[in-house]
Each structure stands twice: as structure tokens, then as C-alpha cells.
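Reopening closed ticket. The problem is back. First fold of the pair:
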Amino acid sequence: MRLSVLSAFCIPAIFFSAGARSLSAVGQSVTIPAGVPLRVQINHPYRVHVGQRIEGHLIEKVDHVDHVVLPVNTPVSGVILGMRRVSEPSRTHAILDGQFMPPAVPAVRFDSLRLPDGRTVKIETAATERDATVVTMNAGSKPGLRARARAIIQDRKREAAQTLHHPNIGDRVEKWIYGQLPWSPPTVWTGTEYDAELTAPLMITGPQPPPLPEAPVQGTPTGIVHARLLTPLNSATDRKGTPVSAVLTSPLLTGDAKQVVFPEGATMSGVVTVDRPAKWFARNGQLRFLFHSISREDAASSSIHGQLASAETSPGSRVRLSDEGTAQSSSGPGKYLAPMALGVMAASAFDGDATSNPIHSGVDSNGFGFAARLLVMSSANAVLLRGFAVFAVSKSVYYRWIARGHEVAFPRDTRVQILLNAR
């Protein structure tokens, strides 16, 4: 009798407890806070029309504390809001290249994404277009002139091979052709990247893996951490001692990946240690910053020594990283080769028979886009040909030898890798 009475109370309790755990697992959720950017790449080209829907996918995973919540290739969709003007320097540069109506920048907003389990959730974002490549730290001694020339040749071969075998080569060719014309239709091209920063928290419901235990911090942490800058930096304005902060985008785990040393969301603090703004006569800027502490929620900060190991930069700035983490903009091999090549073509334009060959005239009039080539080839005017040839040389010499050099700029949310070492 006692057993039956005990069973009457215990068995329902057991089932209730199991059911409660099940409901708890189903009801688990994680919240991605506002301010976290989603890196989105566009899947197809879209002509800009207000209200046009666009599709893309994540090219950077999103972690929460110690696990992935939004993997790479997560589908994202949004809408085109309209157009906004480009900056005045960009407009001036485009006009000097023969684009009399420089293209405006499409404004977009991403408003939904599809979770790995197939559910679609609404998101609120503010999108910023990104045009960046990743540069890594140069290890070892500085290469000689022959080694650098060989590296440049190899880079050009690799870029050519990637272009020929690129899945979107048709879009690339079309984009290049429009870039030679005085006008191009506003387009969101395939492969365009955006940082869609969440303007409201994103809650993801569903079972989540159990959290990993935290590892005690002993001594100075070492390793590579992935982070994004919370502080925008620019060699033109930021000086030595300027505070710098960044947040981890992926957790730093122990060697066996069973414990968390620092979770996603941990904040690093540091300062600018080297600054040199760009100056006239193509003297480029320099910037270096170090991180000295890292802190996680509800825990004391730990001392670190973190230096820049790799970072996203604008392709035109040609930033290089030294083995000490100093970022310096470079003029690239074009500083010498481009003016020399254009000078040779300009000299040939003063040949008495330069206008007799339309192809020769088209090449010599380089520097003002397809409009100049077409005009010179159709008119066979020697004065016009020489004018465009001299213009091309003058523009190249000005931008590569006289104008202010390139600044080193890291906008907010720039992805970086920080090397933590013991010293």
C-alpha cells in the first residue's frame, strides 16, 4: 500500500520534472544584442529601384558566448531604399576619369533572415557597404627588390586567374565596361558586401548547446583572437594615446576546446602607440595600436599584450602590416610604373603619324575613359590626341607624386585578428 501511494506521488513528479526540462530546452533562447553587425554578401545583381527586394547570405558566422548561432551562408533578404550621393573627393576622382555622372551609392536595409532550422525571423538593421581586403602581418626580414618584384608578379597572376575562373565573371566584365563609360546605371552588383548592424536585439529561440566551463586565467593569455573594432581609427586624426576598444567576435578556447578562456563579447582596451598622418608629395600615413587589457562580463579584467596581426582595409589604400603590427599605406608598384608607361604613350602621341592608326590613337588617349578614346579615334585630331595623352600623364604624376598620400583608416566594425603574446 505504501508503495502504491508513494508511486502515486513520485511517478507524476518524475514525469513533470522531465516535462519541465523538455519545456525548458524548447524555450531556451539567445539574444544577439543591438550593435552587432551581420556581414552580408549579395547573391545577384539588382538594378536600383526603390522597394526592390534583394537576397544575400552571411559570409561571417555570428557567435554567442561560446558557440555559433548564425552560421556562414545563412540566407538574408532586404530592400533597396534609394540612392545617396558619394563623397566629393570620390565624385572629383570619377569626373577626372571620364565619368561625368558618377554613380551614387545604393542605400539598402536588411529585414529578415532564415535560421538553420528553416524559420524566418525579422531583423532591424542599418546597412553600410564594405569594400575591403584582408592584409596580414609580414613576418621575418624585409624582402629585397627582386623578391618584392617576384611577389608582385605572382599576385598579378593569381588575380588574373581568380578573375577568369570567378563564378561572377560576367558581372565583373559588365561592371568594368560601365566603369569606362561617362554614365552607368545604378546597380547593386553580385558580391557586394554590407555590414548590416542590428538596431534592435535579435532573439533566437530553440534548444541551445550546454555552455562550456570557463577556464581560469593564469598569467598573460596568448593566442590569436578574432575581434571587431568599436573605435574607428584614422591616421589623419588619431594621435598617440588615443583610446582603442574592440570586442571579440569568436571565443578564445583552451587548446582542447573544452573550456572558454574569453567568450565572444569580451572587450579589449588599448591605445594608439604610433601615428603619422599622410602628407603632400605622396607621403603615406602610419598607425599602430596595442591592447593592454581584456574583460568579460562579471569578471575582473586581465592584462594582455595584443598587437594587430591582420585587418580588413580598403583595396585602394594598399595597407601593409609590419611584424610589430604597424599599419602603413603603400603607393604600390604603380607609383613608378604607371607614370612611366603613360609617359611613353604620351611621347608616341607626338609622332607625326600618331593619328593615322585609330587603334594607336585609342591607346595613347588613355586616362579619360572610353569617351576620350572614342572621340580621338573618330576625329583623328592630333591636337586632341596630344591633349588627352598629356592629361593622362599629368593626372598620374599628380596623384602618385604630388598629392597627399593615403591615410590608414579602420572604420568601426573592421574585422581584425589580434596576436596575444606573453611579453
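Second fold of the pair, where the issue appears:
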Amino acid sequence: MSESEAREVGTQIESARAGKVTRAMEEVGREEGMEGEEVRREVACGRMVIPANKRHTNLKPIGIGVGVRCKVNANIGCSPGRSDVEEEGRKLEVCLRYGADTVMDLSTGARAGEVRKELLARCPVPFGTVPVYDVAGRAGGICEARGEDFVAAVREHAEAGVDFMTIHAGLLRRMIPLALKRRLGIVSRGGAQLARWMEARGAENPYYERFDEVLEICHEYDVTISLGDGLRPGCLADASDAAQFAELEVLGELTERCWAAGVQVMVEGPGHIPLHEVAMNVERQMRVCKGAPFYVLGPVVCDIAPGYDHISSAIGAAVAGMAGAAMLCYVTPKEHLGLPDVEDVRVGLIAYKIAAHAADVARGRRGARDWDDAMAEARRGFDWEKQFKLALDPERAREYYEASNVGEGGRDYCTMCGREFCAVRASQEVRGGRG
């Protein structure tokens, strides 16, 4: 969004309610094959968000909502002991090359601010952060923080140009005993830090207590709030329990407070859910939060696949997207094991692009099947170059084809079956014989 655009509007949702189609809405419409007025209506009722901080001047706006293409978020960021600005920059390049719709910087440790500044300056897609990580990473740790420190971190990120922020405001002190009955307790990094602070201070969640202050900041810069699920389940045994749904009820309340303040909002969803409960969770969130966009991590549908959780979670993500989730947060093969590297980011992102596209096809979204039909035509015609061009990961498709067909493949077959046993080629011969 340009500086002139930033000056001419309050927030996207306020403009939409006033009947104004902003340039950001027009851009989203062109990308999604919609009229700007249709986008405006979705933003006005809260079913779509356009994360676009007024200070993120190199941003290409996107729409996140059930009525448009299912989006994919990629998490990157350093940890206290691993990675640096250069490595995270390479991860960002991979995210952009392979089609991440949004990027979140989850950096922790002394270098977090430096990494965030560098990544944001280079990022043309909506950029997200988790401000509580900064609070926890400063001198003395989370338990020494004052209530105002939590709000100050939000302002710091907003002033830097961050487009959306995870705010764990729905985890209340009374819910902690419910979470501690679980097999894995609290697995959200932000949620666990806030629980530590509440127990150490004997006080309520500062993000809940000071939510009006958070709203003022987000309204000033048009930051979209992503209401964090601090009590998301971390294993199948903890899924769909009293703690998770107690927090969801508060997220429903906070959603309405965001709308009343003219602030865009989406709601984050659970991490580990049995496959047969995924759709129920999405439908329940959409009901409780009155249609606000649902942003889900996975969900992971089994706990036994370390090293392959990009697959176990993409299965759940496809079902969640089909049920109405608006954005999927990717999981990499390193989930539960370590900090992802560049290749992990690539593999995780492609797995989630597959899940999101499968959801788009299932929901009959504009143009989704056209892509698959074009690939089918390219396969029928043995048009390998077109197949590579249409592939989600063209480089990998070409790499596999060329490695497997050296000196053996032909224009009208590959080494999977060979010329004589190629089913597509045989079908064409049968069709030709029938005239």
C-alpha cells in the first residue's frame, strides 16, 4: 500500500463500512477475480481481512477470508542458539519464490529485532509477528515484565510496519488449571510465557486487561489482530477439551471488541486434532467468532510422525480448508525436532500449497480447477515444459524428470512405465483406432 493510500483511509474495515472501496480492496479484487464492491462487503462484515499496516509501503495487499482463495502462511525466524539475519533472509527468499501468501517472523533471542527489521524491509507480502516473544526475551525474562511492557511491544512492532500480530489475549488465569490437567499442558510458546507471568504475578493476562490499549495501537496503524490460541492442543489426547473451548469463547468476545473498535481481526486455531474432529473445530470457531477468518496451524492429525509432520499436518489442513478455514499456517518436517532450515521451509510450504489448493477445489473457488485441468491437458499431450510451468514446484518437477529419463525417456513417455506400457500413450492409440 502506498503512502497516499495510508493517508486517505482510517482502517480497511472502517472504509468498507463507510461504503468506500480502497485501492487495497481493488487490488484484492483483481487478484481474486472479484469486483471491488464484493471485496468491500466481505471486509465490512468482518469475513475478510486485508492486513496492511500503513507503514508497510512496499506491500502487495491480499485478502484473507472464506470467500477467497485459501491462503498459506510461512513461519521463519531465528532462535537464541540458531540462525542469523542472512539465513533468515534466505528463508524469506524461498517463501516468496514458492508462493507464501504471508510470512511470520517468530524470532526469539537477542537478534530478534535486527532480524525483524531486515525481513520486513524485504517483504512485499503481509508480515506478522508475536510481540510477547520480545517481552519474554528481554532482560530478566517474562516474569519481570510490567503490564505496560506487553503493550509497548505491540506499539514497537506496529511502528515498524508489521501487518498482523498474534495477541494471546484469550488465555485467562482461570483457564490455567484446566490446561494443566492435560497430557502436554500448554504447548503454545506465547501462551506458556503468559501463563508463567500470570502465575508469578498472581494477575490476569495483561493482553486481556489492556486490550483497549492494544486496539488503539492497531487502529492507528491498521494492524490486523490475529487472536492467538494460547491453549491449542499439543497432542490428540488434549484436542477439543475444556481448556481449548474456554479460550475460544473469550476469543469470540474479543472478536466483537475488535470490530467495535474498527480493527480487523482473524482468529487462530488448534494444532493437534484427530481427523474426524477437524471440521467440527472449524465450524465451531466460525459460529463462536461470527464468521471472522479462521487461521489454523495444521492441524496435525497424528502424533507419531516426527520428521514428516509437514505431511501429517497438511492432511488436517486440507480438511480444515475444505470446512472453511481461511488461512493455513504451514508446518515443516522439523516440527517438534528443531529450527527449520531453508529446505525445510521449501518442503513445508509446498505441502501447504497443495493442501490450500485442494481446499479451493473442494469449495469450488473461482478458477481453482482450471489449473488442474490445464495440467491434465499438458499430460495428455506429453507437453513436459508446460507441466513444469504449471507445477507448484517447477524446479523439483524438472529435476525428477531429468534425473529419471536420461537416455531413456521420449517425448511421448517417461521411465515410470516406458514406451510400451505407457497408459496415456496406449489410450491415445485406442482413441485413434476408434476414429
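Update: turned out to be a display glitch only; the data is intact. Strands lie at 48-49, 64-65, 71-76, 102-105, 127-129, 164-167, 224-227, 265-269, 294-297, 327-329. The CA atoms of residues 332 and 345 lie 6 Å apart. Please close again.
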